[in-house]
Amino acid sequence: MALPPGYTLHSGLPSVDAYLHLRSSTGLSPKCASQATASINGTWYGCHVTYQSPTNSDNESSQPEAVAMGRIVGDGGWYFVIADMAVLTSHQRKGLGDVILKQLLKKIKEVAPVEEGFRPYINLLADAPGRRLYERNGFVYTDPHSLGMMFQWD
């Protein structure tokens, strides 16, 4: 799927500030700069999309802005968790999330070892807004076989 004009897909994640902005602006839980730095550094693979508006009347072009991202946390062999899928509200409904998810899955398929009957385990936690995107791209619900759980801090 091609991106609309003005949008560019990049391997790697955006800056810490852009990462934090994407998380907070899209309803993901907020993180501090040290958590964002550790998350970016601990990413197995990530990508993001920038948008650069057309040149204005003064012939000055704007700086590209990170408007979408996604990343994979994993061991590179069997276990891959897709995380931090985010698209700024003003850039939604343009296929950016689909492009990012397809790029993440492509990277896993290129690198992860696959043998007859043994494929990598790719999972994610699906918030309500992203569920249709994930279903369209081959994800299925794991219940009743398994349900996601998290540690509850005191």
TrEMBL record:
Pfam families reported for this sequence: Acetyltransf_7
Q: Name one GO molecular function term.
A: acyltransferase activity, transferring groups other than amino-acyl groups
InterPro entries recorded: Acetyltransferase_Butenolide, Acyl_CoA_acyltransferase, GNAT_dom
**Domain annotation N-acetyltransferase: ranges:** 66-140
CDD domains reported in the protein's UniProt record = NAT_SF (cd04301)
User: What superkingdom does the record give?
Assistant: Eukaryota
Q: Which Gene3D superfamilies match?
A: 3.40.630.30
Q: What is this protein called?
A: GNAT family N-acetyltransferase
Species source reads: Talaromyces proteolyticus
